Amino acid sequence: MEKPGFVYIVTNKRAGTLYIGVTSDLVRRIYAHREALIDGYSKRHGCRILVWYQAFEMIEDARYREVQMKEWQRAWKIRLIEVMNPDWSDLYPSLL
């Protein structure tokens, strides 16, 4: 049985540093970002605010989308966020 997956974007502030990731458990992963439990780029830059995500039926599709998005221009990523979340609100509470 295939696992579902999510691609997500976390940031440190509106139009700030963007981090794109993939996970099979969005709530757990964003909690880890918020609590700075994950060493690396997102922790160094304070990316703790969930501003965008997309669900997939299969984790492999989410991974493919993540690779695509990491190649995008910054302006495209910002536009994607603003279509779903024009105020750059933290979407984490809506997941709980």
UniProtKB/TrEMBL annotation:
<dbReference type="InterPro" id="IPR035901">
    <property type="entry name" value="GIY-YIG_endonuc_sf"/>
</dbReference>
<keyword id="KW-0378">Hydrolase</keyword>
<feature type="domain" description="GIY-YIG">
    <location>
        <begin position="3"/>
        <end position="79"/>
    </location>
</feature>
<keyword id="KW-0255">Endonuclease</keyword>
<dbReference type="Pfam" id="PF01541">
    <property type="entry name" value="GIY-YIG"/>
</dbReference>
<comment type="similarity">
    <text>Belongs to the UPF0213 family.</text>
</comment>
<dbReference type="GO" id="GO:0004519">
    <property type="term" value="F:endonuclease activity"/>
</dbReference>
<keyword id="KW-0540">Nuclease</keyword>
<dbReference type="InterPro" id="IPR000305">
    <property type="entry name" value="GIY-YIG_endonuc"/>
</dbReference>
<dbReference type="InterPro" id="IPR050190">
    <property type="entry name" value="UPF0213_domain"/>
</dbReference>
<protein>
    <submittedName>
        <fullName>Putative endonuclease</fullName>
    </submittedName>
</protein>
